[in-house]
Amino acid sequence: MANKICDLFGIEKPIIQAGMIWCSPWQLASAVSNKGGLGIIGSGSMYPEVLEEHVIKCKKATDKPFAVNIPLLYPNIEEHVQTIIKHKVPIVFTSAGSPKKLTPLFKEHGIKVVHVVSGTLFAQKSQAAGVDAVVAEGFEAGGHNGRDETTTMCLVPNVVNAVDIPVIAAGGIGTGRAMLAAFALGAEAVQIGSRFAASEESSAHENFKNKIVESAEGDTVLTLKELAPVRLIKNAFYHTVQEAYARCADAEELKHILGRARAKKGMFEGDMDEGELEIGQVSSQIHDVKKAGEIFDAILNEYRTARNALRAGEMEF
Questions:
Q1: Strand, helix or coil at 17?
Q2: Nearest one of 75, 121, 78, 116 to 97, comparing CA atoms
Q3: Tens of pLDDT along 17-32?
Q4: Is the model's pLDDT at 316 over the cut of 70?
Q5: Do residue 155 and residue 237 come from a single domain?
Q6: What is the distance, to the nearest Å, from the Cα of residue 243 to the centroid of all Cα atoms in its chain?
Q7: Do 89 and 213 belong to one domain?
């Protein structure tokens, strides 16, 4: 399955594991890379010394390419950048900010740069900044998200038509059939987060993994646009936020309600009531916790089955 993304990253299969905060340690990244995809260490929830430890261990666990995700709105960016350069991480995914400043520095050290975008204009600006590819992430995705609520089905073809660099589809993709749909829209690869969050190698708390499995359609919502849009599972914390909206709370009050380390409290420490539980809409399609390799194989096999069915003309109109 060779294509532009496989050639760019030196991987065998165009399946990329998202760099999710509190869920993407070296164990998960190396497991996905060892299957021929691209694993990503999520640095947004790591202190500099923790990221360095994960990079070192990932390099020992796989001889395949892997990446680090850097959310640009998080602290410790400079230290993370130096860790990536020091250990010669081959690929960096940036998000939640402009890649204009850091891209030339990474490229100077031979590091491929991919930026996550939620709109066509951001994709064009990222291309102008010199990134090698973009992730077009629809608002179905978990975690921090786009304010305009553009769905993956609409976003991906718009971005594909607007840029000349490869496009990776993300948001609502957790199955092989969704992967096939993404390729039909013009994507060269898929980035998958929520499905891998519910893997054995994920560093998420078991309570959170079980909550993902229990989630049904409509259990997640995009909220807190005044701060940074985030898709959450509805729980007691979410209802507190809704009560604040009902009394027309301003951004400062919302920031106070959010407080510090709310995502860590929920996703990493397992507080399902007062924690911030970031996950995508596709959680309603996740029914078990499996090894990352098994998830990877299942997605790829379903993709091939669906592709072959289309080729065989079994779906007639």
A1: strand
A2: 116
A3: 999 989 999 999 999 9
A4: no
A5: no
A6: 29
A7: no
